[in-house]
What does this fold into?
Amino acid sequence: MKVVVVGAGIIGTSVAYNLAKGGVSVTLLDATDPASGTTSRSFAWVNANNKTPKTYFDLNVSGMQENAALQRELGGEWLYTTGNTIVSEDAGSLEKKVLRLKGWGYKARIISPEEAREVEPGSALSEAFPNAAVAHFSGESWADAPLATRTITDAARSIGAEVRTGAEVVGTEAGKSVALGGGEILAADAIVNAAGPDGAKVARMVGRGLPLDVFPGLIARVSAPPEVLNGLLHTPLVNLRPDGDGYLAIHHETIDERISEEADLDALAEELLKRARKIVPALEGSEVVGLRPGLRPVPGDGYSCVGGLPDLPGYYEALTHSGVTLGPLVGRLLAAEVLTGAPDPLLAPFRPDRF
It folds into this structure.
């Protein structure tokens, strides 16, 4: 069996790795290097915090567990279970969420200002948000998503997968072939569309209309004193997390909403840093050292789109928001479906044929 996987982000590489483990001939294609697209531009918050309904929550919890299992399997260190602190000026909504998550068996609790200072002693949460509520989620993680993807890619290659970069897909025929720029045709018994923001474009090549929204986002990497932040921190002004020794990654959706072709990304990053200094005073002498603008694909109803389509034998989709949380899990479950023809029940609400 020959399978072509289009897209070498964390989802596509995970699919390729699991297919290679299953003994099929796998070719992983991308126009750029593995993890150089959306995966490297993600905040990489591994969680099920805001995921509803229960079926989507369960999928994301399984994704959290799969990340940890895959790190144990492959070795390396890309997943950091530091916990996550959320600050909200809507105390009622935060308390309601914590109750829901606790009822579903998730590690979640409201904490006092004193406990918040213990969790993040380098922060000034009480000063910045004197009337806010704070919750802590100790089981949540952040990931070095590019390192994870490169590790998975190397593992796939070591067991026989072919990884081809600089490969532009210009056409596909479901269950038969993939055409590349330059005229090369690859035979393929199955095609997996893991093309992220280009997923709708690849779908059109097989005559499939896929509703896929693509949103711009910006992560700024900033210098920081050592150990100034213990874990993830989400606030009304800015979201922060560690990003390796001496650095933080910062982001906020209110900045993302201002991104356009005319936007000054450097100025937006400086605004993120200015906000971050209000939360972490030790960042006063810090600088922006890198920008990670990206495009985030979200299927039309906001939920994952994973599996094959009855009307298009040999064609599969692996497209989702929260790709870092779900990538390793989607890779294993979709590979099993390609190999056996049997969809996993966990994916039943998220099948592509609902569109």
Notes: The first strand starts at residue 2 and ends at 6. The chain has two domains: 2-75+144-211+300-354, 81-140+214-296.
